[in-house]
Amino acid sequence: MRMMRNLFGLAVVLIALAVGANAQTVVFNGIGSSALFLELGQGAHSTATGAPGAACVWSNNTGVFQATDPTTGQPESGNFWVAWTTGGGHGTCSSPASGYVIYAYLQTDSTVGDRCLFNGCTIGTTSTSPTTLATNNLILPTGEQTNLPSVVWTALDGLAVSVAGTDIRPEDAAFATLRATKPCGTPVVSGSQYLGLGYNQTTPAYHLPIESAYSSSSFNVTPFTLPSSFTVTRLGAVPIVVFANPGNATGFGSLTNLTRTQLAHFLDGSYGKTSDVGTSGSFPTTVLIREPLSGTYNTMEYAVPNTTTNSLNTGLNLETSQDVGKNQLTTPIVEENCNGTIPRTNPLNIESEDESGAYRNRVIGTGQMVSTVLNLPNPISPLPAQTTDTLGYAFWSTANFANATSTFNSTLHEWIPGNAKYIQIDGVDPLLDNYTTSNGALPTSGNSLLGDVTFNNLKNGDYPIWSFLRLVNLSTASTDTTDAVAALNAAAQTFVSGPTATEPDFVPISSINILRSHFMPPGITTTPSNGTSGCTSEAGGDVGGVIVNAGDCTTGLRM
User: Fold this and answer.
1) Is the separation of the CB atoms in 542 and 521 below 8 Å?
2) Cα dist from 185 to 159, 246, 296, 342, 458, whole Å
3) I need a surface site. Which of 18, 134, 413, 458 has the fewest CB within 10 A?
4) Nearest in space to 112 (alpha carbons), one of 161, 61, 43
C-alpha cells in the first residue's frame, strides 16, 4: 500500500551526497515542489536499472531540517525524507560503510525552491547534537523505513542547495516574486497589464509575509535574481483540478462544468453565489485562493483570469486576477485586494460582489486548500465561517485527494461525490476520458476509479490548466549533480506509468506531445542560453501560454 505524503507543507528541497571515508562529496543538492515529494523519494529507493537503489529511507514532518536564506536569515521548513545506501563491505542502514551515498528531500514550495537555489540557501538541522531521529513513514509503508543515524544527518547539516524542483519555470517564479513586491495596483513595468500585489514592505529587509485566513501559516516574500545560465529538466505534466464541496444538492452538488470565464468570475469575486453558474439553488460561496507565489496559483492565474488571449476561447480576454487585476471590479464592491500601495486584507478575506456572506479567502499550501474544501480538521480562524458550497483548486495527485469520500451507490448505479467533487473546465475532464464515468467523484484508493485516470485530455491539449514538473540546476553543476538529476528523473517516472506504476500522479514527459508558448515576463531578463521567446501570442508565461503541438513551436521555446 502506498504511503500518503503530508500535504501541509509548501515545496521541496532535494539533496544527494556521496560520503567518503574522511570527507563528503556533494553530488546533488536542490530545492523544489511538493508535487515531486513522493515520487522522488520512491525513485531514490528504487532498484531499477540506473536508479539510485538507496536501501535505507527515513522521513520526518516535525521540521527537524530547514533551509535558511542567507540574504534574510529566514527559515523554510517542511516534510523531509532522506535515503541512503549502505556502502561497500558490511555497511548497514544504522552504520553505513565508506562510500555510501545520501539522497534527501525537504518540502517547501516551488518559488521558494528556485529562490533558495539562486540565493544559496543552506540546509541545517534544528537539533542541538547528533542523535538518531525517528521516522514518520511518509515515503514507504511502516516497517520499510528506518531511523536516521547521527552520521547521516550530520553529513546533511549546513549544505547549500544546488537543485530546485518546481512546477513553473524560474523566469515565472522570479516574475511572481517581482509582482508580489511591487506597490499594489501599480504596473509591474510601465504599460503592463500585470499589477503589483503590494507585499512591498522594506523594513525589515524581507517583505511583508502572505498570511492564511485559516491558520497561523504564512509565506515569506523574498526577492532573488536569476543567474546568467541554468538548466531545466522536465519530469512530466500535471493538471490543476478544480473541485468543490457539494454541500447543497441544488448548489455545487449539481455543478458538473465551469467555463474558464465562469471560473475567472469566481476567482476575481464578481461571482459569489451558486446560481451565477445556472444551479437551481442560490447559495453563498467561499472561494479559496492560494498564496500568489505558489506555482499552482500562477498556473491558475495566467491560464484563467489574468490573460489577454486564448486560442481555445477567444472570448475570454478578462485581464482580471485572483488578487489585483487590470479589469477587476471596483464598484459597487471593491474586488481588488488593494488599500493604497499595500494589500487591503492580509490574509485575503473579501466579500464577493453579488452575494452577502460570500467570500474569497486565502489558504497557504496545497494541504490547507484540500482540507478546507473537504471540511477536514483544520484550525479555522474567526474570519468568516466557511460555507457549505466551497470552491478550490489544487494540482492532482492521489495523495492530495486521498481523504475524499467518493463512493459507488449500487442502488443508483452511480458514484456519489461525498465531501468533494471535481469539476470539468470548458467541458473537459482533467483526469478521466469521460466525466460520466465518475460523476465528479474524486478517484481514491478507496474506490475503483484510480484505474480510470488516463490524463488523455491533458495529453491531447484539450484540458487548459496544467503545468510541467521540473528539476532546475545551475549550468555550472558538476557531472555528479547532472547524473543524479537524470537518475532521479527517470526513476520517479516509473512510479506513475508502466508495469510497475503504483500511482497515477502525473504524465511522464515521454507521453507528452504538447508544449505551452512562453514569452519573457515583463521586468525579467535572462540570457539566450536559457531559451529565447519563441511563441509569444499569449501573455502570462509558460504557466498560461497557448498550448501547441511539440513540433509547431520549438525554436527558442522555453520548456
Assistant:
1) no
2) 39, 34, 22, 9, 34
3) 413
4) 161
For residue 373, CA distances in Å to 85, 356, 440, 470 come to 40, 20, 15, 28
Which are the contacts of 552, defined by CB distance < 8 A and separation ≥ 6? none
Q: What is the DSSP string of 544-556?
A: TPPEEETTTS-TT
Nearest to 25 by CA among 479, 392, 437: 479
Please report the pLDDT score of residue 98 as a whole number.
Answer: 86
Residue 550: pLDDT over 50: yes
Backbone angles phi, psi at 348, to 5 degrees: -55, 125
Domain 239-452 has CATH 2.40.150.20: no
- By the 8 A CB rule, do 422 and 431 touch? yes
Structure confidence by residue, pLDDT tens digits, 273-298: 999 999 999 999 999 999 999 999 99
Say whether pLDDT at 382 is over 50.
Answer: no
Q: Which residue's C-alpha cell is 514538473?
A: 469
How confident is the model at residue 199, as a pLDDT?
92
337-374: pLDDT as tens digits: 999 999 999 999 998 876 778 999 999 999 999 999 98
Confidence of residue 19 (pLDDT cuts 50, 70, 90): very low
Contact 353, 346 (CB under 8 A): no
User: Parallel, antiparallel, or unpaired for β 514-516 and 466-474?
Assistant: unpaired
Give residue-wise pLDDT tens across range 166-207: 999 898 999 999 999 999 999 999 988 899 999 986 655 557
Using CB atoms within 10 Å of the CB of residue 196, give its burial: 0 to 12 exposed, 13 to 18 middle, 19+ buried.
buried
Q: HSE on the CB side for 417, CA within 13 Å?
A: 23
Q: Strand, helix or coil at 300?
A: helix
For 89-100, letters b (16+ CB in 10 Å) and e give eebebeebeeeb
Query: Residue 243's beta-bridge partner residues?
Result: 392, 422
Q: How far is CA 196 from CA 112, 176, 199, 276, 362, in A?
A: 19, 10, 8, 29, 17
Asked if residue 546 lies in contact with residue 516, where contact means CB atoms within 8 angstroms, the answer is: yes
Cell of 274: 451558486
Q: What's the grid cell of residue 336?
A: 481588488
Angle in degrees, CA 245, 265, 221, rounded to 5: 85
Q: Contacts by 271-276 with C-beta closer than 8 Å and gap 24+?
A: 271/352, 271/353, 271/354, 272/351, 272/352, 272/353, 272/354, 272/355, 272/358, 273/354, 273/355, 273/358, 274/248, 274/250, 274/389, 276/354
* pLDDT at residue 309 in the model: 56
Residue type, 355: E
Distance CA 552, CA 555 (A): 9
pTM to 2 decimal places: 0.91
Any idea where the domains of the chain sit in the sequence? 13-166+478-493, 239-452
Q: What is the mean pLDDT of residues 414-440?
A: 94
Examine the pLDDT at 328 and tell me if it is beyond 70.
yes
Model confidence at 9, pLDDT cuts 50, 70, 90, reads very low
Closest CA to 171 of 126, 124, 227, 214: 227
Residue among 150, 9, 129 nearest 66 (CA): 9
- 275-to-10, 220, 331, 359 alpha-carbon distances in Å: 33, 37, 21, 15
Rg (CA), the chain: 22
